[in-house]
Amino acid sequence: PLTAEVNQQEHLQVGGCDVPALVARFGSPLYVLDEQSLRTACRQYRQAFEHYYPGQALVLYASKAWSCLAVCAIATQEGLGIDVVSAGELVTALQAGAQPSQTYFHGNNKSMAELQLALESQCRVVVDNWYELRCLAQLTAEIAAPLTILLRLTPGIECHTHDYIRTGHIDSKFGFDPDQLEQVFGFVSQQPGLRCIGLHAHIGSQIFELQPHYDLAAVMVSWLQTAARYGLAMEELDIGGGLGIRYTEADDPPSIEAWVKTVCQGVVAACEASQQPLPRLLCEPGRSLIGTACVTAYTVGSQKTVPGIRSYVAVDGGMSDNPRPITYQSVYRVLAASRMAAPLSDTVTLAGKHCESGDVVITSAQVPPLIAGEVIAIPATGAYNYSMASNYNRVPRPAAVLVGGGDAHLIIRRETLQDLIRQDCLPDALGVSSE
Ligand code: LLP
Prior knowledge:
Layout: E1 5-6, E2 12-14, E3 17-18, H1 19-26, E4 30-34, H2 35-52, E5 57-62, H3 69-77, E6 81-84, H4 87-95, E7 103-105, H5 112-121, E8 124-127, H6 130-139, E9 147-152, H7 181-189, E10 194-200, H8 211-229, E11 236-238, H9 256-274, E12 280-283, H10 287-290, E13 294-306, E14 310-315, H11 324-328, E15 335-336, E16 346-351, E17 360-367, E18 375-379, E19 399-404, E20 407-412, H12 417-421
């Protein structure tokens, strides 16, 4: 949440833990994940579905937002299934205790090895395209129990968000084209190894409008009806994720409750209009579950003033731990974690430490005069930050701690310099001694 907890020393506190003290203990930069915020968001989704779609909904955590054992374990404990898009995310989810029958494997180019792993683990596969469908038909031709699949379609629904994260428009790399869907239904109905139980679509991410998801429900329900004509017993409808979150005061997303209500009302209205039974309803939020549950703490370092233009304040991380500003021009805000009551008298550009001019965390940040060595914190960095982190410039990825009730537990160890060269090989032919 944007309203920060402040303790008696006027320090930022998350989950009852003093953020500068966490940095002193676990190092910098540091991802600080608030357990209660994550659990609360999981419960808000589940409770809203219980209210508007009782007994027939399943919420999946889109683990691409942040895949690690602890986060998947918490989502699982809260009764969520997991959406995965790679062997790596699948293994993480299963290792964290996710039920295979509540683990859904997405992706537009799953490898043979990934499809094999899906078969062995008996998770559900959301089939994206003809190539994958034919591979699966072959792989499953002789298996004893059929593989449970859903089909992903491109619904042709537009929404307003960054171009890179729109997925529902017709010119998208994901999903079957609506024109081909009947052919797909015909093919699937002939495959003894495939049990197709539903349809899936995802229209995009960081969406603040509700109407696109309402419209999506109608489109999907009509496709369920078409599929039934091919003898496919369609029990499930997965409506994707996409609800936006608040990064700064300028953002005003709908609540989780409002989003769920819209989706449920859309499905119920479309089913009533076409006299169909209600399908089991799935959704797969990522950002709105974990985005606001984390702050990233950095330590302030060098500063530079370009007279008449701007002042730069550099921190000890940047695009390697948060690639979102440079990738999507995302805007964040910053908190002076050890001086929460200080007046915000300066406007500065908060820069990262990477060798690119574009490595800026916040272009225009309101801060008190910052001093080298002090800790600052960027809220709303739970989604697509750790999961998109890199080792650019051979910078080790930060540690992550889970905080709650005043306790902190390490959930991801900080990478060491040795970790960075662990996968490197020096061929003998180079004649370099590796000592
Ligand atoms: N389901 C599917 C099939 C998806 O592709 C995604 C996100 C989700 C669910 C979860 O969407 P969410 O509820 O988090 O909006 N890296 C970008 C976001 C990419 C989203 C990719 N797909 C960013 O940092 O903004």
